[in-house]
Amino acid sequence: MGFDGRFAYVVGRVRALENRMIDQARFNRMIDAEGPEELARILSETEYSLARDLGPERYEDVIDGELARVHALIESISPDPVLTGVFRARHDFHNMKALLKAKLARRDAGHAVEEGSGVTSLGGLDLARLGAAADMLVAAGDEAQMSLGAEALDADRAAWQRPEDLEGAVARAGRRAVEAYEAHGHDPQYIDLVLDRESFDYFYQVARSRRADFLMGLVRTMADLTNILICMRLRLIGKSADFARDVLLPRGSVDRDALLAVYGEPDDAFWSFFKHTSYDRPVDQALRARRDSGSLSAFENVIQAHLARAAAEGGMIDMGYEPVLAYLMAREDEADRLRRIFVGKLNRLPAEIVRERLCGTHA
Fold first, then answer.
1. What is the pLDDT of residue 77?
2. Both 224 and 185 in a single domain?
C-alpha cells in the first residue's frame, strides 16, 4: 500500500502507546515474583489497571479487559477499522467455534454445556447475533436450515456482498463447519479445522481487497508457520497425509501438495523439504531447540518467535496501516506472555520453568 497519510493520527497515537507496553525488565520481575499475588501487584503498575481490583485468579478478565480497551480505541480512531482490526477477527471465529461445539454437543450427545463457555469478549461481532446464527445452523442437518442460519445473521444489511465482510465470513464458515461435522460422523474437531481454514481465507480477502502488501505477506507467513507446527504435531501422533490435507491452512507460500508429498517420509527427509524454502533457518533452529530440550514447546516457541519478528517489521514503516497492525499484534503477544506467566505462578512453578515456557526471544 505504501505511504498512506490517512493513518497519520492513529500512527502518532500508536507510537505513544508503544512506550507504555510491558518491557523486558518488568517481565523478568513478573517471572521472578514470589507468587501470584506479587505478580498481580506488579501488573497493576502497568496499563492493566483492572489488576488493582481483581485477584490473580481473575487474570483472564484483567488481560481481556485491557485488550478489549485497546482494540476499541484503535477501531474508534482508525480510518480503516477492517484493515487495522483484521486479526482481531480470530476471536470472532473462535467464538463461532465455541458456540457451535456447545450447541452440537447438546443436540447430538445431550451434554449440557454452560451457555457462553469458551466464548471471549475480545471479538468485534455481537455475541447475541452469532448465537442466533449458531442456533439456526445446528437446528437441523438439512441445507435449507443451514442456509437460513447464515441468512439470519445478515437480516439487516447488504454488506455480505463484500468478500472481506466479517459477519458474512464467520457465518459462512459456521455453515461449512457444520457441513463438515455432519459429513465426518459428528466429529467436533472438524468445527475447529474448518473455522481455522476459513479465518485465514478472511485475512487474505481483506489484504487483497485493500491491496495491502505487508498484510498479504504476513498472512502467508502465518499460514506457513502454522502449517509447520501442524505437521510436527500430526506426525508425532501418527496422523495420515489424508488427514493432514484436511488440516493444513490455505494462503501460504509453501506448496501444500509438495509438502503433503513428503509428509510420510522419515524425519530427516521430511524436514529437509524446508531447506528449499524461506523457512530453512527457523525450522533448523526449532528442531535444534526441540532436540536440546526434548520438548515440543521449545519447537513451538522458536516458530512463534519467528512470527512475532515478521509482524514487528510493520512497526519499522513510517506511515500507513502497518505500524498499527504491528502494535495490535504486539499487544496480543504481550497478553499471551502474561497468561503463560500467570498459569505458571498459580501452579507454583519455579521461575526457571516459567522462563523456559516463554518464547526464546521473550525471556
1. 96
2. no
- The CATH number of whichever domain residue 223 belongs to comes to 1.20.1690
The DSSP output letter for 249 is -
Global pTM reads 0.88
**What single-letter amino acid sits at 100?**
L
All three cell numbers of 20: 507504555
Buried b vs exposed e over 145-182: b needs ≥16 C-beta within 10 Å? bbebbbeebbeeeeebeeebbbbbbbbbbbbbbbbbbb
Does residue 307 share a domain with residue 348? Answer: no
Report the pLDDT value the prediction gives residue 361, as an integer from 0 to 100: 45
Q: Are residues 226 and 124 in the same domain?
A: no
Regions in the chain scoring below 70 on pLDDT: 1-3, 51, 111-116, 140-164, 359-363
Q: In this structure, what CATH number is given to the domain that contains residue 344?
A: 1.10.132
Which residues fall within 8 angstroms of residue 245, CB to CB, at 6 or more apart?
256, 260
Range of the domain at 164: 90-211
Q: What are the two backbone dihedrals, phi and then psi, of residue 232, each rounded to the nearest 5 degrees? A: -60, -45
117 in any annotated domain: yes
Query: Cβ–Cβ contacts within 10 Å for residue 72, how many?
Result: 11
Residues 6+ apart with CB under 8 A from 291: none
Residue 126: strand, helix, or coil: coil
> Is residue 320 classed as helix, strand or coil in its secondary structure?
coil
> What pLDDT was estimated at residue 106?
86
| Percent of the chain surpassing pLDDT 90 | 73
pLDDT digits (tens, 9 = 90+) for 221-280: 999 999 999 999 999 999 999 999 989 999 999 999 999 999 999 999 999 999 999 999
Are the beta carbons of 294 and 317 closer than 8 angstroms? Answer: no
